[in-house]
Amino acid sequence: MAILSRTARGRTRLATSWLLAGSAVATLTGAAPASAASIPAVQPLVFDSPGWRALPQSDRQLFTQFAHVSTTFDGHAAGVWSPSFRPDRMARVVGALPEGAGPGTRPRYAYAIGHPDPAKLGAATPVDLPRELGLPAVHRISDGPALDKLRDLPFYEVDDAAVVHFNYGTGASFDPGTWLLSRIDVHEAFHHFQSTFRPAVPGQPNPRDFPRGPAAVHALALLEDRVLAAPGPARERLRTFLAIRATRYAQVPAVVDLERQQDQWEGTARFAEDRYVELGGQTVVHEDRTPEDRRGLFFHLAGNRSYAVGAAIGRLLEQSTGESWRGLIAEGNAPADAAAKLVGTPEGAERERLIEEAKGRHDYPGLLARITAADLPGLNLDEPKR
């Protein structure tokens, strides 16, 4: 759910979504996951420990979530993605923001969790946490360069030493009061893990270059969304989706690179996030509604839909062919590429039949009317969002 940038030494830095907000920044990113309001609140674990009880509730909620991540990956790392994806084993430096503070605020203090040299971060004091949490050594950083670095952090960063950095607090992007924090943490850690993948496309396409038409092709994109979300046999839904996508790509090749890159990047991160949620005993919740406003509709088409599309393809492939698609992703395939290799893309009369059946089943005329009414060619992305 974030902008990716890398330094020459391999640092991964992520900033909040511009596609979701509709900013004029010309960088590739995607949509946010479900809102915190739709995800359960965190009840801190209870221990007979004066030190634990003395911590602010937000800190106990934070450590409760980290403990849940650790427990889930201890038992289910291979089920989430692979045994080598272990976000729970990454060192972390997380800053405690004043209540209601946003980016650019210096944290009141920070916690270094499993950090190899906390003294380098500033004034570091060991924190005596209950052993049952299963966390590595934790230090409280009350002052020093780590707090200055966190002040300047836009969202989330994994540095050259593979140390995770983010800020948390009530109302912040990482709010320890809901389970959304650990879901975003796993999602963003997966982006760092993706540095081991071969990218689906060279370079980073600019979503502002996404074609504004023709309307009929964009309506087919909305038809893809509905096919993937509908009930029915997994293999049949995949082949119908592939039939529609092949037709779209033949008509407007300019959408291919951006969709392949976003589906591989955000779609598989959403898949891993969802698997963590499921295997951790919670319920997956996402608000993947198609926006009603024309600006939101454009950004949906230009990349935001890739969260749901890539994750849905992964789920359907797991149901129909098992986990082999995950290896294809690491080799540089987008989810749709993997699906084409594993279940085949329909051709000729079969393709036409599947598309016509999907159009009838999911009100393609209504989707086309929606796209036409939005007049995407006339949309000025440089006007401030109202």
Structure explained in plain terms:
With 386 residues, the protein is of the alpha+beta class. The chain is 46% helix and 9% strand. Helix 3 (57-80) crosses helix 8 (256-279) and helix 6 runs antiparallel to helix 7. The two termini are 23 Å apart.
Q: Which key terms come to mind for this protein?
A:
eight-stranded mixed sheet, 386 residues, 14 helices
Characterize this entry briefly.
The protein is of the alpha+beta class and 386 residues long.
Side by side, the strands of the main sheet go 1-2-7-8-3-4-6-5
Please identify the oligomeric state.
single chain
Radius of gyration, in Å, reads 22 Å
**What is the N-to-C order of secondary-structure elements (H for helix, E for strand)?**
EEHHHEEEEHEEHHHHHHHHHH
**Helix content range of the residues, please?**
40-55%
Write the layout of secondary structure elements.
Elements: E1 3-6, E2 12-15, H1 18-21, H2 50-54, H3 57-80, E3 92-96, E4 109-113, E5 124-126, E6 138-141, H4 145-151, E7 156-158, E8 164-168, H5 180-193, H6 215-229, H7 234-251, H8 256-279, H9 294-304, H10 306-321, H11 324-330, H12 335-343, H13 348-361, H14 364-374
Helix pairs in contact: 3-8, 5-8, 6-7, 6-10, 6-14, 7-10, 7-12, 7-13, 8-10, 10-12, 11-12
